[in-house]
């Protein structure tokens, strides 16, 4: 965003947005600048994206006229720590209503790509149409203005995410890249392809260390436009001395309570990152295992972080200038001078891919875990959707030994899992690539398909989280109710109504402003940072209302696409107690029906209060 107002104190309407709309079939790029009309425009991210999606009527996500929106938040690309997020929004090919209509969705990635987009002079790009040949979009800065062009990408076909990133980084020095893997190239049969966004660490080390916009098939959408990558090339920006509000926010982000869970122990008493959930949830019987049905065994212990400490070197590495360093990158341990030094790089472990591609599939071997997680990254899959779909297949085969599918792949079968991951990426296993809802519906066996509105569940048991169906995007990243039972232990319906309607939604605040959720940044730090960067003074209440309006716009868009109350349901097996889960089992059909009614009554009132019903 930019403003030509000289005075220090500014209004949000003093700022203007730069958008490029690309008609891919014609190779035409139209630039326009428009003033911020409201707080959602100013804060950006999904605040602007959902307003823009409302201008399009989409019945087929893959129709050439359907938009894919790439945008930034107010902090994206700035000196505020973790302000690196780039957002992709569209009507999803994966997330669908019962009537088959695509539903609004977004996914976000960190890395360095977003800050290069801002440095090139753009806040938003809208992709329309379909390129006539495989292409990549090149965004550059010339004479203080952005320049956008379509470039031939034929030589990139078939390359992995990392190979595309490195190849384009060599072709365009100083650039950062958002790229598809083979799964996104085969978008017709893959509805949950991801977009990999490069990091400085990746470019320097030449190791596969991107960050991913994974959920909802945004990579599939980019592939459907015949775009294999987006490259942003611009000089680094020197903004000089940081203002006090930004310095204070950065200190809080790096060492404050909000990011403690994601830091290692040597960084301000950190708790070790998301990997720790394997250990913690396993002890509670709440770790998704063998398609979300834990058997109470010891298998997951081999994948605890402590189990890797002796045989591997684990480094906590970071995105650009981030003090949290949430990446847990794993290297071969090489003896040297009486110590263990890092040798070959294997992969990065985050909780979701680690659990859903290993424990959830009954795979416990450490080297198999390293290989399968890396494979999903290189091929450009959303690891959550992939792991859930494979887990369903394995349980189906266990239940139906006389009618097996996919060569009888069952729990623990690493070789077949690897084979079918490759086949899916290549477009040879469309039943897997189109997600668990479509597969389970075709088989007529849906009770243990772990999805809501067609979007596969993250690695938290649905019987512990009645907030899942209300999430507009990823089940845990857009509705923070997923660990409340573990941490707070409440099961009464008043508690859960408030948790969904008020607390859970506010987790999406960062999907407007462009900060990483792992920062856990309090409003008390965000408001001064916005004031010092932009001269705009906001209140915490104003930010809450902007976040709530954005969520409700998403809900209104879902309803416009034809959702009814019957679209908002939990997997049927949620209501069956698992004796190995050491948490209260409180979600019954009656509980769910009452909670859903209360939540939607509250949302309907808020939609009217905000004037969004029209």
| Number of helical elements | 22
The major pleated sheet works out as: 6 strands, mixed
| Chain-averaged pLDDT | 96
State the share of residues found in helices, binned by percent. 25-40%
Stretches with pLDDT under 50, minimum 5 residues: none
* Overall body shape: globular
Radius of gyration: 23 Å
> What class, by secondary structure content?
alpha+beta
State which percent range the strand residues make up: 15-25%
- Euclidean distance between termini CA atoms: 29 Å
Strand segment count? 17
Strand order in space, largest sheet = 2-1-6-3-4-5
Describe this protein's structure.
The structure is a single chain. With 614 residues, this protein is of the alpha+beta class. 34% of the residues lie in helices and 18% in strands. The protein is built from 22 helices and 17 strands. The chain has helices at residues 39-43, 46-53, 113-119, 161-171, 182-185, 200-205, 218-224, 244-255, 276-283, 305-308, 351-357, 366-379, 383-399, 414-425, 430-433, 436-443, 484-488, 493-504, 510-513, 523-534, 540-560, 589-609; strands at 16-23, 28-35, 68-72, 86-96, 102-109, 124-128, 135-142, 145-152, 175-179, 195-197, 211-213, 227-233, 312-317, 327-336, 339-348, 451-452, 455-456. It has a 6-stranded mixed β-sheet with strand order 2-1-6-3-4-5, with helices on both faces. Strands 8-7-12-9-10-11 form a 6-stranded mixed β-sheet. A hairpin with a 2-residue loop joins strand 14 (327-336) and strand 15 (339-348). The two termini are 29 Å apart. The model has no long low-confidence stretch (mean pLDDT 96).
């Amino acid at each position: 965003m930019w403003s030509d107002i000289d005075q220090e104190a500014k209004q949000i309407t003093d700022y203007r947005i730069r958008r490029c709309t690309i008609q891919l079939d014609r190779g035409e790029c139209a630039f326009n600048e428009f003033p911020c009309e409201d707080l959602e425009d100013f804060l950006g991210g999904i605040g602007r994206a959902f307003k823009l999606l409302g201008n399009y009527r989409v019945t087929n996500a893959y129709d050439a006229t359907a938009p894919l929106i790439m945008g930034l938040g107010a902090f994206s690309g700035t000196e505020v720590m973790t302000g690196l997020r780039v957002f992709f929004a569209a009507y999803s090919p994966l997330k669908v209503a019962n009537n088959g209509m695509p539903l609004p969705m977004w996914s976000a990635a960190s890395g360095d790509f977003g800050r290069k987009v801002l440095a090139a002079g753009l806040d938003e790009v809208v992709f329309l149409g379909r390129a006539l040949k495989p292409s990549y979009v090149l965004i550059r800065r010339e004479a203080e203005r952005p320049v956008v062009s379509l470039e031939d990408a034929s030589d990139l076909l078939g390359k992995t995410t990392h190979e595309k990133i490195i190849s384009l980084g060599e072709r365009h020095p100083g650039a950062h890249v958002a790229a598809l893997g083979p799964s996104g190239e085969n978008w017709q049969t893959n509805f949950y392809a991801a977009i990999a966004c490069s990091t400085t660490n990746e470019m320097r080390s030449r190791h596969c260390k991107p960050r991913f916009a994974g959920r909802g098939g945004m990579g599939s959408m980019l592939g459907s436009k015949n775009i294999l990558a987006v490259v942003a090339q611009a000089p680094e920006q020197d903004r000089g001395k940081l203002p006090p509000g930004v310095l204070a926010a950065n200190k809080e982000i790096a060492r404050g309570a909000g990011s403690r869970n994601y830091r290692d122990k040597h960084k301000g008493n950190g708790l070790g990152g998301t990997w720790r959930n394997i250990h913690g949830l396993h002890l509670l019987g709440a770790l998704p295992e063998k398609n979300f049905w834990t058997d109470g065994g010891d298998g997951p212990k081999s994948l605890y972080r402590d189990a890797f400490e002796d045989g591997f070197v684990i480094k906590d590495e970071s995105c650009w200038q981030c003090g949290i360093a949430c990446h847990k990158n794993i290297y071969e341990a090489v003896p040297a001078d009486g110590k263990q030094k890092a040798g070959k790089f294997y992969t990065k472990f985050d909780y979701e891919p680690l659990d859903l591609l290993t424990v959830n599939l009954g795979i416990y071997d450490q080297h198999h875990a390293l290989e399968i997680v890396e494979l999903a990254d290189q091929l450009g899959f959303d690891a959550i959707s992939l792991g859930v779909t494979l887990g369903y297949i394995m349980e189906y085969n266990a239940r139906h030994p006389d009618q097996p599918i996919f060569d009888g792949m069952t729990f623990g079968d690493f070789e077949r899992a690897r084979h079918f991951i490759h086949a899916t990426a290549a477009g040879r296993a469309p039943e897997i690539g189109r997600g668990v809802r479509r597969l389970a519906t075709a088989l007529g066996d849906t009770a243990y398909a772990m999805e809501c509105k067609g979007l596969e569940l993250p690695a938290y048991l649905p019987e512990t989280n009645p907030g899942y169906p209300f999430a507009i995007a990823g089940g845990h990243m857009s509705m923070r109710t997923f660990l409340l039972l573990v941490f707070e232990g409440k099961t009464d319906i008043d508690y859960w109504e408030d948790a969904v309607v008020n607390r859970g939604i506010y987790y999406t605040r960062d999907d407007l402003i462009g900060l990483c959720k792992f920062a856990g940044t309090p409003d008390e730090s965000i408001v001064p940072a916005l004031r010092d960067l932009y001269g705009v003074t906001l209140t915490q209440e104003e930010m809450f209302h902007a976040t709530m309006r954005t969520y409700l716009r998403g809900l209104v868009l879902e309803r416009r696409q034809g959702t009814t109350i019957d679209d908002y349901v939990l997997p049927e097996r949620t209501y069956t107690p698992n004796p190995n889960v050491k948490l209260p089992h409180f979600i019954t059909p009656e509980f769910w029906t009452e909670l859903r009614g209360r939540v939607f009554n509250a949302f309907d009132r808020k939609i009217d209060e905000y004037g969004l019903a029209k």
